[in-house]
Amino acid sequence: MTTTHILETRNLVVEYQQHRAIDQLNLAVPAGCVYALLGGNGAGKTTTISTFLGFNRPSSGQVLIGGRSLQDQPELVKSELAYLPENVALYDLLSGAENLRFFCALAGIELGREQTGRLLSDSGLQADAHDKRVGQYSKGMRQKVGLAIASAKHAKAMLLDEPTSGLDPSAANDFAQRIRAAADGGMAVLMATHDLFNAKQVADRIGIMKQGRLVEEFDAHSVQHDELESKYLAHARGLA
Amino acid sequence: MIAIVMRKELATTLRDGRLLVLGLSLFVLFAGFFLFSSYQLQAQRLEKQRVGATAKEQWNSQSVKNPHAAAHYGIYVFKPDLPSAAIDPGLTPFTGQSLWLEPHKRNLTRFNPSADDVLANRFGQASSSFVLYALLPLLIVALSFNSVSQERERGTLRMLHSLGVAPRALLFGKLLGLLTAFWLVMSPAVLLAALTLAGQFELAIDDLLRLSLLLAGLLAYYTVFAALSIGASAYFRTSRNTLFCLLGFWMGSVFVAPRLGAAIGDVLAPNPSASQFWDAIKTDIAQGLPGDGSKQQRETAFEAQVLAQYGVASKEQLPVGFVSLNRQYNDVYSSKVHQLHFDRLRANFATQQQLAHLAGWLGPSLALRSLSMAIAGTDLAHQRDFEDAAEEYRRYFIDLTEDWDRERSHGTERSAKGAETDWRSVRDFAYTVPTVGFSLKASLLPLAVLGAWLGAALWLLAHSARRLAP
């Protein structure tokens, strides 16, 4: 039996301004899996996420989403993705509910008031905050609106770029649980992060990137925290 | 998708404090200028009616006298104003508002309101039209210079791209949202103008058509600024660069283009000085146009023709007054020479106006100004139409008095008399401003320039979508 990979790259190379940001990347994230991409600054984590989103054009290789090529059917495959950057960018002058309805409408999903409220509540946003302007939201609250957007889209895959950076431990833990729940619901999650603790806590697989290459990949449950830290530091210091 | 973006833009723009604060300030400014202007227009209309009626009554109540002497008393006629002139006074403050109609000579209009203006008003162009064509585009720039660059800087552009939003749909949605919000905030000003004009003047269908066309012209004009502003915001990487670029464009369009256009017109088609103009008329009357002979030669030939026509040997034997006949003959020639020089002068004005549009590549303000003045009936074409009608009236009443003079005298005597019943039989000067079709015909070039700007702005907006990388 073959596993269907929701997110996949094959020999992906991304170059810009004569710099090879991604070098022969082979990555596969199946449904229900949280994949954590670790690596130092400039390792290529964010470029990988951006390439899945179509922000970067591959120099060679393939990007597949749900088995379909991003290059061939960009609009179609984008509809299967949800994206949560480090700072979920929303419109400050709109409320959380209005932001959710706006982004969903752009994705072709019309939400009623009740459905909007339920999605926001399910993502952990307090009901009294739904109609407040996003300008008054904390970073964690914005992340929850982002999760609600992903949930409303029924996205097959979620791309997270440093999602817990700047969150307090409680919010980060809450967020990790929601990511885990989304994956358990069948979503494929690719998460670029510096946060080893969070990666170990939520991920099924972990890949370490360095200079655009995936230098090591392993089952997250097969390593302990200190072992993960040692692997990470070894690659960071060039010892591995 | 455009509609979704438009609704979001409308909501965020209306909630943005900038629109309310700037919009309210400009509304107050517009309302002040407009109310003052409409009050002034109303007062001017009443004054013109009053003075016109008084002048005609003075004409009517002249004593018994020679008809030609009565003609020399002259009649004042006044250029009527349309209600839309309250919105755009155009050239009214600088062109004369009345014409003194007298025998032998065609006069230029006189009594321009700016000559009576308070000193402070001669600095700058403080009027409601200045708010409409100069300040409101600045409001649009202030509202939209960062409409895309802000999305880029805050990261929402990446969110939108991740959802597969088409860049063109995003930009055109923003354009429609901005324009809708702008008009919603401006609607009290439009309402105020409509109610004030309806309260002060009897608005005819033509007036309503003019006001609707003015609104349509302004909509096109603001769309140019909004499209360029949003396009620039998509094209440039930072809000600062976008703002500098747009402010430069605004200044070029509003301040540089009209002055540059006027300078181009002056250099390429210079006007004669007043003394050159009148001297040339005097010389052509005295010396005659090519092939016509001098005044003395023309008069000699005319006398011979009249004697032959009546079959008499001398002027004294004529059954009609020769003095009047000869004067009428000279007046016809004088009118012909005046017409020639006035037509040349006006053709030069028209050439200057067209040449001024060479500066139209700097921005659409010059074209909008020309269009707006034409619609408000305060441009040169309307002035010319009034002057032509007044000249026609001048010839009518001068000819009438000469007819009385000629028919009531004999030979070279000057005994003809006219009385109050004669003077009262001269019909009033009844001039109606041409319809809006006349304005549009006179505005083909500015309409074309404004249309070209609208097309170019929308094309640039669509083109800048290609650079809309996250």
From TrEMBL, chain A:
GO terms for molecular function: ATP binding. It comes from the Bacteria. InterPro entries: AAA+_ATPase, ABC_transporter-like_ATP-bd, ABC_transporter-like_CS, ABC_Transporter_VariousFunc, P-loop_NTPase. It holds the Pfam family ABC_tran. The keyword Transmembrane helix does not apply. Keywords: ATP-binding, Nucleotide-binding, Transport. The keyword ATP-binding applies. SUPFAM superfamilies: P-loop containing nucleoside triphosphate hydrolases. Signal peptide: none annotated. This is ABC transporter ATP-binding protein. It comes from Methylomonas aurea.
TrEMBL record, chain B:
The chain crosses the membrane at residues 20-39, 130-148, 169-193, 213-236, 243-264, 444-462. The keyword Transmembrane applies. Signal peptide: none annotated. It comes from the Bacteria. Keywords: Membrane, Transmembrane, Transmembrane helix. It holds the Pfam family ABC2_membrane_2. This is DUF3526 domain-containing protein. It comes from Methylomonas aurea. The lineage of its organism: Bacteria, Pseudomonadati, Pseudomonadota, Gammaproteobacteria, Methylococcales.
